[in-house]
């Protein structure tokens, strides 16, 4: 499943970050921010308009990701 | 180079955004800071110096926050180029002080490991270790030193003496370079955390509790609205007396000079050119400082990215970003602090779009003109039961500005060649109580930037406008106001055919020229053109009956439409120049605003004429 489909406040693990294009700096940046296989991840809030962006807890940090950014991240519930 | 700087120890503070780097920089250097831009880019360069207890002179560079050396913004590119010695004109630092937030080591240590690959002498400053201790995070310093192979010191940047351990470390010899870490930085970070750090809970309970309300879809937006309402009330009610005071002081100084100098060119230059010009610059300061006080408090407390989170979706629809919201909102008071606040937008494309539409927000300087024209032409009457027609027109002018800004941003989104996806990827840091010293230093920095960089441009343009309005002098025995015979008068008459299709008479055309200095000057300029005494307290009061009998309603409406768009403010153009470092952007924004102003006035004038 992809991160935007993950239900609210459900513990999950990152499987991988997929490139949306052959060269994808956004995917690269997501990996640098800690979205790597095996890391625990959780969606803790959604924006008030169109449930966008997502507020995502990874490691000890919270990041706001737009849906298009979050869709690069494949996760599995734990 | 034989200056003492050549023998000084050069250190650079480097770390992730939100690691408390700038607070640490403030603790080390106090107010001995120099703020400028890096050559050729609009990234802020902050440098300071201090002397250690051992008497060593240290020169500190506060590098922009970065997540990685694979730069995705101009800020990160500068950081990468400075620490790899690739930025022209910047010496390679002798020592990198890697600043990490002790409560956010998973993210920040990875960057430290990435920096270790560069093979430079490094020290790790474990910042905010007081907050980490409060949250029960235990860090084994000895083990961390051993695993990283570099000195590790604890710092609390918000405490007065919180940088002592770092300063003591700087008195020692440069540490040897540690061997490069293993290739998988994430795995290595996890290993170090497992061996040297124990974290009872991944987040601070207080952050979770506040965010449950602050990011709530309904309550969060309600809180944001109340906050912004309060901010605006404060900007207008606190700035008003200060601005009045500055205006009175300027007028007093002008009168004193007038009384003590013989009538002539020098007096006119001093009083109407320099004093009036300086007053026109300084009068913006109260609003700028109060707005920046709020922006700094929002930024330091960690709320600013939350506001961006709440509003991002709305702004993206118009081709902007959540981070554009606060700068655009500030522009309702004055576009100058609004455009300066776009520094919080790291993405250059989003930042440029925000800067270009900021002047469309109705700033407070437009109010005197709106008030004059509405009072003269719009009848005091009630419509639809309880609405005041004058109030409705004023509201329509504000709404037209906002709608135009959204439309312009939307059109720009379609016109630009760069259709690539630009990420939000916004970190929401822990909430923090703002540190008064850091806020005060931030305010001081904004005030000096405004007065030094922008003030110079505004002052010289004001003197130029004075020259245009005063020369050549009216011939002896000439009738009519003196300005009519000046260059400004000639230009006004020359402009008139161009502005006839939008209904402006030659008096309006002349008033537009000195009105370039600042929009509100147009009112007193009109008074001058109509040969009223411009120094009279109540120029507007005398003008209202005069223009309401001389101008048609179509002309008045056309002038109102003109002021929604016209870049009638050199200060705004000066600040755009300073913030973008590009005359092209200045020309682009002035050009498109003039084109829109002319178009809007033309449509308004022709429509109003055909309807009446």
Q: What can you tell me about this protein's structure?
A:
- The complex is a heterodimer of chains A (78) and B (612).
- Chain A is of the alpha+beta class.
- Chain A contains two helices and five strands.
- Chain A has helices spanning 25-32, 67-70; strands at residues 12-17, 40-49, 52-58, 61-65, 73-77.
- Chain A has a five-stranded antiparallel β-sheet.
- Chain B is an alpha/beta fold and 612 residues long.
- Helices cover 59% and strands 8% of the residues of chain B.
- Chain B has helices at residues 4-7, 21-29, 74-83, 105-116, 129-134, 141-148, 164-171, 185-196, 205-214, 219-260, 265-282, 285-301, 304-317, 325-330, 335-340, 348-357, 367-377, 389-415, 436-470, 487-499, 506-512, 521-529, 539-550, 553-565, 570-580, 583-611; strands at 9-15, 33-37, 44-51, 57-62, 95-101, 122-127, 138-139, 152-154, 197-198, 382-383, 387-388, 426-427.
- A seven-stranded mixed β-sheet of chain B has the order 2-3-4-1-5-6-8, with helices on both faces.
- In chain B, strand 3 (44-51) and strand 4 (57-62) form a beta hairpin.
- Chain B is elongated and about 90 Å long.
- The N and C termini of chain B lie far apart (75 Å).
- At the A-B interface, helix 1, strand 2, strand 3 and strand 4 of A face helix 4, helix 13 and strand 12 of B.
- Strand 4 (61-65) of chain A pairs antiparallel with strand 12 of chain B.
